[in-house]
Amino acid sequence: xxxxxxxxxxxxxxxxxxxxxxxxxxxxxxxxxxxxxxxxxxxxxxxxxxxxxxxxxxxxxxxxxxxxxxxxxxxxxxxxxxxxxxxxxxxxxxxxxxxxxxxxxxxxxxxxxxxxxxxxxxxxxxxxxxxxxxxxxxxxxx
Length: 142
Hints:
By secondary structure, the chain is α+β, with helices and mostly antiparallel strands. It has helices at 11-62, 79-91, and strands at residues 69-71, 74-75, 95-98, 107-111, 119-123, 128-132.
């Protein structure tokens, strides 16, 4: 009895290859998601730092921080303040500012996308905290 073999792959071999490709694709997508969240964290952090730079620039020009605020705990809704806060919110990390009446001090908190219970904080003294858990004080918590 002579067997004739045809060239090609069996159905089982094809299914195994498709399963392996599916598993690899899911692993890659999971790692890309965490990288995307960390990238968004970097952008929120950058926006918080740029807001501080803008506030300090206004302080140099006017002698106080009031130019950056329309009310206590509220940035001016125009210019760089509007652009930076809107950009951070679009990334999923809204920015909150604590500036008591008199505007002698402030603390800016940006919610981190990778861990929504944490905030990046920078205050008027230059102190930063990359894992603040509260956003209620005009000074970054230790």
